[in-house]
Amino acid sequence: MESLPAEPWAAESLSAEPLSAEPLAADSLLGGRLQHEQGAWLCTLRPDGSPHVTPVWFVHLEGCWWIGSRATNVKVRNVQADPRVVLTLESIDEPVVAEGRAQVAQADEFPEAVVEAFQIKYGWNPATVDGSEAPRVLLRVVTGRWLMAVAPG
């Protein structure tokens, strides 16, 4: 049986410790992708331990991922029960995976700089309540480990 070729990024990967001492290091290493990519995939854990994956809008500011949501969404309930999450950028050709822990911020705790960053990136205020009655929250994710493709050489 013929074996499948290895993924081009599988042999060359990088994992790093938390970047809290240098919050811009990750984005510098990624060539600004955290500032410009429009979407990411968020994986949370359901109460039974199974994964829940959903596409999200995000901003990455001062070393943290910020994700807007309704307070009643599954991802928020999952994070409240178990803060472990994984975020990935959308490109399969240049994979980036961030493992971390999430916290829920209520509307009165939204940092002004984060609200402004969402308005600049998406033309959207994460505190704006849409047609539902559910209040808005932000998930703040601190990365504990990065896994990403590294150019050979």
Instruction: Write down the overall geometry.
Output: globular
Average predicted confidence as pLDDT: 82
Rg computed from alpha carbons, rounded to a whole number of angstroms = 16 Å
Per CATH, the class reads: Mainly Beta
> Helix coverage percent of residues?
10-25%
Q: How many DSSP helices?
A: 4
Low-confidence runs of at least 5 consecutive residues: 1-24
Q: Which class of secondary structure composition applies to the elements?
A: alpha+beta
Summed up:
The chain is α+β, with helices and mostly antiparallel strands. The protein has helices spanning 25-29, 33-36, 74-81, 112-122, and strands at 13-16, 40-45, 51-56, 58-61, 64-70, 84-89, 96-106, 136-149. Strands 1, 2, 3, 4, 5, 6, 7 and 8 form an 8-stranded antiparallel β-sheet that branches.
List the main descriptive attributes of the protein structure presented here.
eight-stranded antiparallel sheet, Pnp Oxidase, Chain A, 153 residues, single chain, alpha+beta
Would you write up a description of this structure?
This protein is of the alpha+beta class. It has a single domain, classed as Roll (Pnp Oxidase, Chain A), CATH 2.30.110. Helices cover 18% and strands 38% of the residues. It is built from four helices and eight strands. Strands 1, 2, 3, 4, 5, 6, 7 and 8 form an eight-stranded antiparallel sheet that branches. The radius of gyration is 16 Å and the shape is globular. It starts with 12 loop residues before the first strand and ends with a strand. Mean pLDDT is 82; it is low at 1-24.
